[in-house]
Each structure stands twice: as structure tokens, then as C-alpha cells.
Design a protein that fits this description.
Elements: H1 9-13, E1 19-24, H2 29-44, E2 51-57, H3 63-77, H4 84-91, E3 94-98, H5 103-117, E4 122-127, H6 134-143, E5 150-154, H7 162-175, E6 181-183, H8 191-201, E7 215-223, H9 232-257, H10 266-279, E8 288-293, E9 311-316, E10 328-333, E11 342-347, E12 368-372, E13 378-386, E14 394-402, H11 415-425, H12 434-443, H13 445-449, E15 455-457, H14 466-471
The structure holds 6-O-phosphono-beta-D-glucopyranose.
6-O-phosphono-beta-D-glucopyranose binds next to α9.
């Protein structure tokens, strides 16, 4: 059942239907850190419709046990306080079915809660389960009749290569129509990702220069200081390319590189993103640096000869009229020197011959436009300006903007919150489609079939030395020569 997601903008303005949400993997790490606190914040912000949340997992809990579990999660991770009255209302909407109670028990609780809510109740299934368990849950939902009137949120990874992605999509489509499926990529739920679209298409200033004539190269750089923590079993099979590149960095790249959509609605935006993926050059092993931090092999659970990469940097191109010849450099890794999430656009340099030798023109690289994809996003435009005083000496200066300056950061929704809300609205704008994800796996084929060897890098560094050859004669923006300005 593969069809295009429908245009659902109308549901954004009509009140949401009551929902029964089934949270698979309800006692897992993601549920504790993000989903339960996120649902609570949506309720606080008045964005959750009348809703009953049924947690389910292997843990042997009852409703009260799940409520205490959720309370613990909120105490640890809720960002906006947990006032008693709000907690009482939220906790009374929480229910639990242990998986060992059998499928019928889940279907029965959902039916009872729907009856209690009355009227036209929508279902939302959130699959926060390990990838190997997801197909079985999907089939169970179909068997129990729980796919009707339902939407399903799938967590990444959506396969590990083209064949497994096609297989997973076929399994999904045997039970759910594509319009019911929401493949979550939380990077796209970050406020800053949508702001890329606003910035590009709501202004006349930048779009005319958003092309190969004016842009020399683009970097999408997401170093992390974190290590793998308790996710070794998952990470050993996944690695940085599958964990971060396919799911997050390429998605951000699509927003950055796509053509103007005909309308700000899911189908048009999805189409333009897919065109970017179709034009993406195949990822060639010679254009990739894979790294592994020193000490990874000693982590408990890691195979003695593991070749899993904890770092990846690559160069790719988008072979279309707008971007042909412009290199895109992407990098991400664990245990690196700093945590950051930036997109940096380097503009072509002008002829500099009129400036006297020693003036400093070009000495600090090209002009840059930099997006910081932090939740409270920031933006900087750097350029050369004259240093005050006699003669012509040039310094790099910058115009900077931070969302904090607007005083509207309290309106921020965390990425997961926004995406759960969008799925309840049926809005696919920020979700990945079957076609998009399959195209990315297809483009990844040369790398996956013939990965270059992993190179060691010291924890706390910027990756193996080979990253500099990869990008030469350009240079990585991070670490920044000048930091972000903070409001005084
Ligand atoms: C997850 C990856 O999807 O994104 C993690 O599995 C990564 O490995 C995380 O650390 C980064 O997300 P954020 O929002 O913390 O930058």
C-alpha cells in the first residue's frame, strides 16, 4: 500500500481528535528521556488532545507501576517543572499492559479506553523498540485490528542497506498505508531545521545567491563529545554512518539544498527532498574517512576486532543545475573535541588584487553563513570589514542572531514533542518517506559494499588526520576561530 502522504494542512487548524496512543518500549531509554517528558510538556502547553497513553513493554508493571515510572522520568528529564495538578491530570491518562499478558490484553485496553473517550478516536502507535522487533509489532497491530484509524511512528534505523530498507517498507506497507506511517528523524524536528526553510524562502536576500555561482562549499558538521554509553549492542551493528549520516545529516542536507517547493505542505516538500536524494552522487569509499576512537575496542561488549566506525567524514556532490561542482562535506563522530551541530556555507571569494599586500583580505577564509542547529537556534554571517584607523587593514566581522534574543524560547518544543504533535495532526512535512530512505541507501551502496578501513583517533580530537586531506584545499570550520557572541 504505497501512496503519497495526503495533504493534511487542514487538520492543523481544526482541533485534534481524541487519541489513544500506544507506546511500545514504554520503559526504554528513549521513553524515559524524551517521550514521557515530551508528552507531559505537550499536555502542559495545551497541545495534547484528549488522550490516553498505553505503555507496553516486557517489564512486569501495572498502571500504578507505570505511573511511578513516568513520574521518575519527569523528575529527571522534564524541563518545565511538574506542578501537582498537571501531574495528576497527566498520570490519570497513563495505563500499562505488560507484553506477557498477551496481545488480546492490549487490544482490550485500547477498546475500553476508546469507549471511555467516545466518538471518533484516533490511534497513534509509537514504536520505540529495537529494529529487529519492529516488523513483528507491525504485524501484531495488523492482526489485532489496531492498524485501523491509526498512525504509526517508526524509530530509526529504517534498514541498514537498500535490501533491508525495502524489506522493512514492504512489511510496513502490508499493514499500513504510507499516509499512516511517520518515520521519525528527530533532527528535522529541531526548530532550526524548519528555520532553514523560513530563512531561504521567506527572504529575498539569500535565495538569489544560493547556488554554485556564489557558494564554494557547504559543511554539515555534528561532532559529539558523548561516547556510546549503554548502547553498544545497537551501535556495534550500526556505526556512525547508519546511525547519524543516513538518518540525520543527509536529511538536513536536503533542506539546505532543495529547490523551492510549490507550497509549504508535505507532498511538495517531500518531492523536493527526494529530488535532492536522486541527484546525490553515490558515496564513494575514496571520499570517506571512517574512524574509531582509541579505546573503543576495550568498551564492554565490543568485539575484539570490531571495524565499527565511531566517526565518519565524507565529501559528496549534488549533481543538478543548482549545485554541480559544489562539494558538500559532512562529518560526525563520538568522543570528539566538542559537541556542535552546524551547517556552514562558504561563499566564493572576490578578486582581491585591489587590496594592498598585508591588508588581511581573505586571511581568515571566505565569508560564511553559519546555522547552529541547537534547539534555540543561532545564525551568523561573517564578512570582511575595515579595521578603524589609517590605511586599509581588514578584519573578519560578523552579524549574529540568536533565538534567545526574541524572548520566545519558552514557546520552543523539543524535537520529539514537535514531531509527536505533527504525527497527531497527520502532517508528514518533517518525516522521511519510503522513497527518500530507499534512495539514500541506494546512494550508499559503494561505501557499504567496500568500506575503507577504520582509522584510530584520540578521544577528544576532531577525528583521524585524514579529514584534512579529504577537504583540502578547503578547511573545516570547527573549531571556530571566533566563538559565538553571547548576549551581555
Ligand atoms: C541519535 C543517535 O539519533 O541522535 C545518537 O542515535 C546521537 O547516536 C543523537 O547521539 C544525537 O541527537 P541530539 O539531538 O542529541 O544531537
Amino acid at each position: 500500500m504505497r501512496s503519497e502522504p495526503t495533504d493534511v494542512n487542514s487538520s492543523l487548524i481544526s482541533p485534534l481528535r481524541p487519541h489513544v496512543m500506544v507506546l511500545f518500549g514504554a520503559t526504554g531509554d528513549l521513553a524515559r528521556r524524551k517521550l514521557l517528558p515530551g508528552l507531559f510538556h505537550l499536555a502542559q502547553a495545551g497541545l495534547l488532545p484528549e488522550c490516553r497513553i498505553v505503555g507496553t513493554s516486557l517489564d512486569d508493571l501495572d498502571d500504578d507501576g507505570f505511573r511511578s515510572y513516568a513520574r521518575g522520568a519527569l523528575d529527571d528529564f522534564a524541563h518545565h517543572g511538574v506542578p501537582d495538578d498537571e501531574w495528576d491530570a497527566f498520570s490519570s491518562s497513563l495505563f500499562y499492559v505488560c507484553q506477557s499478558d498477551g496481545d488480546e490484553a492490549l487490544a482490550k485496553v485500547v477498546a475500553e479506553l476508546e469507549h471511555e473517550l467516545g466518538g471518533d478516536v484516533a490511534r497513534l502507535h509509537y514504536l520505540s523498540v529495537p529494529p529487529a522487533a519492529a516488523p513483528e509489532v507491525v504485524q501484531r497491530l495488523g492482526k489485532l485490528g489496531l492498524a485501523e484509524r491509526a498512525r504509526i511512528i517508526m524509530e530509526k534505523p529504517f534498514g541498514t542497506d537498500l535490501a533491508s530498507a525495502v524489506k522493512l517498507n514492504n512489511t510496513l506497507h502490508a499493514t499500513f498505508d504510507e499516509s499512516q506511517i511517520f518515520r521519525i528523524d528527530h533532527f528535522l524536528g529541531k526548530e532550526a531545521a524548519l528555520n532553514i526553510l523560513a530563512f531561504r524562502f521567506a527572504n529575498g536576500l539569500f535565495e538569489p545567491i544560493w547556488n554554485r555561482q556564489h557558494i564554494a562549499h557547504v559543511q554539515i558538521d555534528v561532532p559529539e563529545t558523548l561516547s556510546i554509553g549503554n548502547r553498544i549492542a545497537f551501535y556495534e551493528k550500526t556505526g556512525a554512518y547508519r546511525d547519524m549520516m543516513v538518518n540525520h545529516l543527509f536529511q538536513v542536507l536536503a533542506f539546505m539544498a532543495m529547490e523551492p517547493p510549490t507550497a509549504l505542505e508535505p507532498r511538495s516538500i517531500g518531492e523536493e527532498k527526494n529530488k535532492v536524494f536522486r541527484s546525490l552522487s553515490p558515496i564513494e569509499p575514496s571520499q570517506v574517512v571512517r574512524g574509531q576512537y582509541e579505546g573503543y575496542l576495550d568498551e564492554p561488549g565490543v568485539g575484539a576486532h570490531s571495524e565499527t566506525e565511531t566517526f565518519i567524514a565524507l565529501r559528496c556532490e549534488i549533481d543538478n543545475w543548482r549545485w554541480a561542482g559544489v562539494p558538500f562535506y559532512l562529518r560526525t563522530g563520538k568522543r570528539m573535541a566538542q559537541g556542535a551541530r552546524i551547517i556552514s556555507i562558504a561563499f566564493r571569494e572576490p578578486p582581491k588584487s585591489m587590496f594592498p599586500i598585508g591588508s588581511g583580505v581573505g586571511a581568515h577564509g571566505p565569508d560564511h553563513l553559519t546555522f547552529d542547529l541547537a534547539d534555540a537556534s543561532r545564525l551568523s554571517l561573517s564578512f570582511y570589514g575595515k579595521r578603524p584607523g589609517p590605511g586599509m587593514r581588514l578584519d573578519k566581522q560578523s552579524l549574529q542572531f540568536s533565538l534567545h534574543e526574541t524572548g520566545r524560547t519558552t514557546d520552543l518544543l523539543e524535537a520529539y514533542e514537535r514531531l509527536i504533535y505533527d504525527a497527531m495532526c497527520g502532517d508528514h512535512t518533517l518525516f522521511t518517506s519510503a522513497e527518500g530512505i530507499e534512495k539514500l541507501w541506494e546512494r550508499s551502496k559503494p561505501l557499504l559494499e567496500n568500506p575503507p578501513p577504520v582509522r584510530p583517533y584520540p578521544p577528544g580530537s576532531w577525528g583521524p588526520n585524514a579529514i584534512h586531506q579529504l577537504i583540502a584545499p578547503d578547511a573545516w570550520r570547527l573549531p571556530f576561530e571566533r566563538g559565538w557572541r553571547t548576549a551581555s
